[in-house]
Amino acid sequence: MNINKIKTYMLSAVTALSLASCLDKYPEDSIPMDDAVTTVGDIDKLVIGIYDSFKSSALYSGNLTILPDLQADFVYCVKGYTNVYGDIFRWNDIKATNTDIEAVYAALYDVVNCCNFLLDNVEKVKANTTDDNLLDRLDQYCGEAYFARALAYSELIKLFCKAYDSDEQAAQTLGVVLTEHYKGDEPTRRASLKKSYEFVLADLDKAQELLKLEDDFSGTLYNEIYFNEMTCYALRARVSLYMHRWDDAIKYATKVISSKYYVLENASSNTYSTTVNDYKYIWLYGDSREAIWKVGFTVNSYGGALGTIFDNYNYVSYRPDYVPAKWVINSYNSNDLRAAAIFTTRVTGYEHGLQWPLLSKYFGDATFLGNNILHVHQPMVFRLSEQYLIRAEAYANKKEYSKAGKDISAIRVARYSSYGGNTSLSETNAMDIIESERVKELYMEGFRLHDLKRWHKGFERKASEQSAATFVQSDLKVEKDDPLFVWPIPQHELESPGSEIEPNESNK
After folding, report:
1. Which of 278, 312, 373, 423 has its CA 20 to 30 A from that of 456?
2. What is the pLDDT of residues 179-235, one digit of tens each?
3. Residue 355 β-bridge partners
4. Neighbours of 269 (CB within 10 A)
5. 463: pLDDT confidence band, cut at 50, 70 and 90?
6. Buried b (16+ CB within 10 A) or exposed e, 129-139
7. pTM for this predicted structure
């Protein structure tokens, strides 16, 4: 079915059913919510609720994006900061009662439960529907629910489970609590890591079929705020990489790249504006031809403010809590135009007068700034550049270094003022170059902690790289496979009535 057929209808839908807490149980004397879901219009509202759930500041416009990178080696803590996320940054203070981690866990399971609620109720609506167009629309909505559930579970696995090293290891490793029904008697028990990922893949299989584009589809898909066949392939490529299924990672990333629906924005071109290049336009306006799926915000309905801790601008001065690490800033080649697009050197408003390149990519999209809303950027959960990086890493693990080098070159040609020749990769340098490129391309987009975990690498923060006058001194050395690479399961989940959830090593 052509996804564009349903968009106008969705956007004109009236206020969605309240799904703020999909875990709530209803009093016996009230009308059960599932009895109120009887029409296609009711399912419409549930789908809108699913999309709205991704606006949570605990997810892509906040904790889910910021915390994994802040916990690793990407930032310094400025002296005089507000201590926001301080326990996460300090690493050893991460506890099972951490409210920011609890918020991520709860928000992702809210998505899961919203999807389960829709899927549990859609069949009775189908049974009472005879119009073929409406039945197609219901299939579309089921596909969106299957994809949303797969995405939420993929994030839960990434954060609360160990890395997937092999099928054998994953079969013996704790995964997540899997539920297929909103009201069911499924045990509150963690499946294996292998079964958890298999659940995600099964949902993606269903979503891919239901969200398949028509053969004659000729529209645009970039900058999309709705799920479709290509978002399924993008997530499938990411999950395949995490599972070390190199051939599948290549297959699905190639489907996205070869579709030609998306284009790497060129940092040397000025297609949209005479004042900023096309790459910088991504961060100034929240629009891009390389955005595969983004969380759709409006000035009247948006999530968190990603840029707050990096700028903390109050119309007078900047008082960032965290600033980019020196090694990250120095990793950009002098021809690499990404640095100028995402960092801006400013004198801060602190008494010590710190002057530093601040992370400005999340300062705020122009539409929001025009409405006096600071630091709100529409999160781009899937971008084309990540697909190139996924494919490059998969090729490198198959020792197909020439192909991997071409994918790295494709990114650099788009991002550099000039880049001649191919990137030469070999067994000795391939992963170092790919890691470096992931740092530069995906900086503060929520990938770093998981990258280090799945590569089984530690990291180090050195106080010697910071001035004692302007930074909180934070020497830290974390060895590979440290338990805190895996977030603790929230304590209230372990202690809830009937829970059989096993803790992580980080809970102990």
Report:
1. 423
2. 999 887 788 999 999 999 999 999 999 999 999 998 888 889 999 999 999 999 999
3. 347
4. 12
5. confident
6. beeeebeebbb
7. 0.93
- Left (φ > 0), alpha (ψ -120 to 50) or beta: where does 347 sit? beta
Residue 352 · residue 470 · CB < 8 Å:
yes
Closest CA to 343 of 493, 196, 444, 215: 444
Residues 6+ apart with CB under 8 A from 141: 43, 44, 46, 47, 118, 122
Nearest one of 156, 132, 149 to 58, comparing CA atoms: 156
Per residue in 324-376, pLDDT (tens digit) is: 999 999 999 999 999 999 999 999 999 999 999 999 999 999 999 999 999 99
Rounded CA separation 147/150 (Å) = 5
Backbone dihedral region of 223: left (phi > 0), alpha (psi from -120 to 50 degrees) or beta? left
CA-CA distance, 97 to 494, in Å (whole number)? 11
- Roughly how many angstroms between the first and final C-alpha of the chain, as a whole number? 49
Q: Which amino acid is at 243?
A: M
Q: What would the 3-class secondary structure string for 359-422 be?
A: ECCCCCCHHHHCCCCCCCCCCEEEEHHHHHHHHHHHHHHCCCHHHHHHHHHHHHHHHECCCCCC
For 444-469, give one letter per residue: b (16+ CB within 10 A) or e. bbbbbbbbbbbeeeebebeeeebeee
Q: At residue 150, does pLDDT exceed 90?
A: yes
pLDDT band at 304 (very low <50, low <70, confident <90, very high): very high
d(CA 250, CA 423): 19
Please give the structure tokens belonging to residue 193: 């890591």
The whole-angstrom separation of Cα 235 and Cα 244 is 14
